[in-house]
Amino acid sequence: MNEKIYKTMSCAGVTSLVLGIVVMVTSIVSGVMLIINGTRLLKKRSEITF
């Protein structure tokens, strides 16, 4: 009985850890992309305005 609980807890722990890493990487990549797009917009600001 204790082995089954231990396996379930370790599986849940690994899943949480992997999900946390994926969310962290995704948020960092999204932030970098937003910064890059923002700088592109600011550079081309004079072309866009009339």
Task: Give a description of the structure.
The protein is built from 2 helices and no strands. It starts with a helix and ends with a helix. The chain is mainly alpha-helical and 50 residues long. Keywords: Membrane, Transmembrane, Transmembrane helix.
Features of the shown structure:
50 residues, membrane, rod-shaped, mainly alpha, transmembrane
Number of helical segments with 4 or more residues: 2
Q: Which blocks of ≥5 consecutive residues have pLDDT under 50? A: none
- In angstroms, what separates the terminal alpha carbons? 73 Å
Backbone structural class = mainly alpha
> What's the count of strands?
0
Quote the beta fraction: under 5%
Mass-distribution shape: rod-shaped
Radius of gyration: 22 Å
Average pLDDT for all residues: 91
> What sequence of helices (H) and strands (E) makes up the elements?
HH
Question: Can you summarize this structure?
Answer:
With 50 residues, the chain is mostly helical.
Write the layout of secondary structure elements.
Layout: H1 2-43, H2 45-48
Keywords: Membrane, Transmembrane, Transmembrane helix
